[in-house]
Design brief:
With 487 residues, the protein is of the alpha/beta class. It folds into two domains: 342 residues, no CATH class; 98 residues, STAS domain (Transcription Regulator spoIIAA, 2-Layer Sandwich). It contains 20 helices and seven strands. It has a five-stranded mixed beta sheet with strand order 3-4-5-6-7. Helix 20 links the parallel strand 6 and strand 7.
């Protein structure tokens, strides 16, 4: 236990502290922007980012991953805030956390294995596109100096790490260019233009809503949506950070941790949040690996707001935009262009559909769900082809079955037989096949009955153990004209 704590908290102290500072600076405009999307005061998003980061540092299952207020969650909240107000949002956030804890207890992370690689690639690419699109209003058509500062930031973040790695390049860009902007009197949009910042700590509150069934009926649909969207984004982000760092993480613990963090956030006046791939990538790229980096990000965010609030509001938006553009470049899977040419057409289509739906709806969960469903349809179509080969041997007509017999393949199975023969010995050999469901057993029944109508004697042969158990349980053929054999 002591070794685990040392490894997760204190094995990379310097890197974690510096990367946490960079992430905190990047969190401020994002949290304010997401608050505006949700229709709430900017402090609601900032408080959420503080509490989520601090709690998840202790309770999460993926060291070094950043959780805070996010755009995907903000979009789900819009109708709730508009129709019922802020207090109902706090109540929904608490219920969201409770649902996520239950998901963690029931090991929902097992569902991650059903997300294909094509969907993962599409998720990452769509997220990179969305992050870039979110930056566009902050620099396109604003001013000439905006372009200059974005360009200089890109150069600093790209070039400096090649020669100097003691301090993260994004932090150098933020400090250096903020000083230049302030003392040079350069007219630029700043963090302060995104919304007002209140220099105070969050206070414990109990949501001022009626504790009734009617309230539960109002918030539950939003909470279940927030819980699913939050966990989907968090678990996918955890998998991506796993790949980036070459380490494993506890996804079920992450689900429970997200739940605990959201419960605390709701009681401290914050909106529901989840893992952020953009900030998590910034953290990893800046050298963050342990839980300390996430903790520092949350604590330093609040330090910036309370102690350095007057300076923070003067940080030029073009600098943060440049950093986020570099995050987009680093996040986007550029090998996916090669993947489109080399991968099976079905996988390439799944990736493109995932990207298109996420970008069109601005909702990561819809794209991922659509990608998974489309992958499932292609998979079912791929394995639903049955092969039935007829041969004659020792006065017997033998049909060799090859493939997976289930609801999608039963029609091809039934149509593959020759039912014109009369008074023959028929053998149906399942050596290279598997019977999966009731539809499959029904199809076998149908074949048996059609042969029996012409006084044929039929033997089912070489079913594997699982298939035989299912056929024994569900089949209706059971007389002297049909018999079941595993020999």
């Amino acid at each position: 236990m002591v070794e685990k704590i040392k490894k997760e908290w204190f094995s990379n102290v310097r890197g974690d502290i510096l990367s946490g500072i960079v992430v905190a600076l990047a969190l401020i405009p994002e949290a304010i922007a997401f608050s505006i999307i949700a229709g709430v005061d900017p402090m609601v998003g900032l408080y959420a980012s503080f509490t989520m980061a601090v709690i998840i540092a202790f309770a999460g299952g993926r060291p070094g991953m950043i959780s805070a207020a996010t755009g995907a969650m903000a979009l789900v909240m819009v109708p709730l805030v508009r129709d019922y107000g802020l207090e109902y949002l706090f109540a929904a956030t608490i219920l969201t956390g409770m649902i996520q804890i239950l998901f963690g207890v029931f090991k929902v992370a097992k569902l991650m294995k059903f997300i294909p690689r094509a969907v993962m690639i599409g998720f990452v690419n769509a997220l990179a596109i969305l992050i870039f699109m979110a930056q566009v209003p902050h620099f396109i058509g604003v001013s000439g100096m905006t372009y200059v500062f974005v360009g200089i930031t890109l150069l600093i973040v790209y070039i400096v790490p090649r020669f100097f790695t003691a301090i993260p390049a994004p932090l150098i860009a933020i400090v250096l260019l903020t000083i230049v902007a302030i003392y040079g009197g350069v007219e630029l949009r700043t963090v302060g233009d995104m919304g007002a910042i209140t220099q105070s700590l969050p206070a414990f509150i109990i949501p001022s809503v009626p504790f009734t069934i009617e309230t539960l009926a109002i918030i539950f649909p939003y909470s279940i949506s927030l819980a699913i969207v939050g966990l989907l984004e968090s678990l996918l982000t955890a998998s991506i950070v796993d790949d980036m760092t070459g380490t494993e993480s506890n996804k079920n613990q992450e689900a429970r941790g997200q739940g605990i963090a959201n419960i605390v956030t709701g009681f401290f006046g914050g909106m529901a949040g989840c893992a952020m791939i953009g900030q998590s990538v910034i953290n990893v790229k800046s050298g963050g690996r342990g839980r300390l980096s996430t903790f520092v990000a949350g604590v330093f965010l609040m330090f910036l707001i309370i102690v350095l609030g007057d300076l923070v509001v003067q940080i030029p938006m073009p600098v943060l935009v440049g950093i986020m553009i570099m995050v987009c470049i680093g996040t986007f899977d550029w090998s996916s262009f090669t993947y489109l040419r080399k991968a099976p057409k079905s996988d390439a289509l799944v990736m493109l559909v995932t990207v298109a739906i996420v970008v069109a709806t601005n909702d990561l969960s819809k794209g991922v769900i659509a990608g998974v469903i489309l992958s499932a349809i292609f998979f079912v179509a791929k394995i639903s082809t049955m092969k039935v080969v007829k041969r004659v041997e020792n006065n017997q007509i033998i049909f060799d079955i090859e493939g997976q017999l289930f609801f999608a393949s039963v029609d091809g199975f039934v149509d593959a037989f020759d039912y014109t023969v009369e008074n023959k010995n028929i053998v149906i050999d399942f050596s290279a096949a598997h019977v999966w469901d009731d539809s499959a057993v029904g199809a076998i029944d149908k074949v048996m009955m059609r042969y029996r109508e012409n006084q044929n004697r039929v033997t089912i042969k070489n079913l594997n153990a699982a298939s035989k158990k299912l056929v024994d349980k569900l089949a209706v053929f059971n007389d002297q004209n049909a018999k079941l054999s595993t020999h």
